[in-house]
Amino acid sequence: MNNQATMQRFSLNQITTEQWGLAEAIEGSVRQEVAWMSVWRHKLHEYGLKEAKRHLSDAGLSLSSLCRGGMFSAGTKEERVRRIEDNKRAIVEAAELGTDVLVLVCGPGATNDLNEARSHVEEGIEAIVPYAKDHGLKLGIEPLHPMYAADRSVINTLEQANDLAEKIGKDHVGVVVDAFHVWWDPYLEKQIQRATGNILGFHVSDWKVPIVDMFKGRSLMGDGVIELKKMRKRVEAAGYKGPIEVEIMNQLLWDMNGNEALAQVIDRYHSYV
Amino acid sequence: MNNQATMQRFSLNQITTEQWGLAEAIEGSVRQEVAWMSVWRHKLHEYGLKEAKRHLSDAGLSLSSLCRGGMFSAGTKEERVRRIEDNKRAIVEAAELGTDVLVLVCGPGATNDLNEARSHVEEGIEAIVPYAKDHGLKLGIEPLHPMYAADRSVINTLEQANDLAEKIGKDHVGVVVDAFHVWWDPYLEKQIQRATGNILGFHVSDWKVPIVDMFKGRSLMGDGVIELKKMRKRVEAAGYKGPIEVEIMNQLLWDMNGNEALAQVIDRYHSYV
After folding, report:
1. Where is the Xylose isomerase-like TIM barrel domain positioned along the sequence (chains A, B) (predicted)?
2. Of A68, A239, B176, B192, which has the fewest CB atoms closer than 10 Å, so is most exposed?
């Protein structure tokens, strides 16, 4: 295992350069020799699926994942069906773009009954598994930090994601390890080991005190407390050697020139991941 | 099990009426027929231990706990020893005031090595157990929400608190269940059951979206998503029938007249706990 992550594994999660549209992000990535990207659906829809596919292909960029499916829980059966349909569209888009992972944010949060919301998530994933299978795609359950349990995700630990992946079936469902969401977990090492062979993605950013914004509170690697190299080595020991997505929601980064933001992100990646 | 918590179990955690000094809080509690209080050490020191003891006794108030010991982890051996000494002073104060529980906030956070910080906490608790025993006191490990792992507590789930209490010894170490910190936990029910007979306190407040401040982000019961009645019944089923502390850090509440704030808190307690 290397003490430094290679540029070959660097993936730009598009939210990190929110100031860019998809075309700009593709061109900016090429300029700085980025090999992988993770595309967000709202940016994809702005640009158009066919245009995006052609542009990514011409640029020689590979997709580490499509962000995101999920958001299964809702108060009515009709709304839950509608959301499952939207996940099917996401699967089609992911397959069309040539990525093999659809990241699932398993929310939204618990507005009323937490157990019920969690049941909706399980039912939603089960409903789309056959569809993902038909499209040659894996579903990556990404547990979100417990501070999002009320409004963004009711899957909040890697243990819970592992439980769900094992229950629904690891042939088509895996887990995504995002450092920001899981770093605090006292049982993280054990749960990463348990996920061996079933980790579909690894995301990095940092946790800096104070967290000034619940959504845009992430920091550049090196600015916070997360022991990223240690976590990367654990994830590698569990068999994951794929792209490492840098996913940072941070207003200061978004206010910068996109090229400068990306250069800084790559620099921090080399030093701290 | 009752569908409503009784006033006999209501305890005013003093931080809820931060606008009051201890003397005011005692008098305010008496006016509204509060039977229990939890006292914070900085307020106690302002007032003086002997004065406080006499005033509480004259008012007929019982102490549900003293807040707080803990804060064991530190970069140097000298600093850790200093903190253990401070915990011993807290034990003396708690015993003097006649409460049998010292709440431990097991921080501060992980500034460098998270596992090391957690080791410091374990060593710290082990160091003060004999002292607590001599003073007839139990130590209550209160897991704090994972969003405080970097700056306030490295014990972040009830499972972790249970592990620690069982390892160090349940004769003198138990757990404190604070709804705000643990409500999101997918394994909460199991861990409350596991803590049967070893729960030393139950704290209530609410989680309202958005959380506007990491420390002062708690809301009045009923304003957020936590299913408090369900949690109370689980804690009762695990044998805890003691005082229920209302512990709310909230600037709006602190900006109110103390009597009005307490009246509102009691009203919400009756409706939502």
Report:
1. 40-257
2. A239
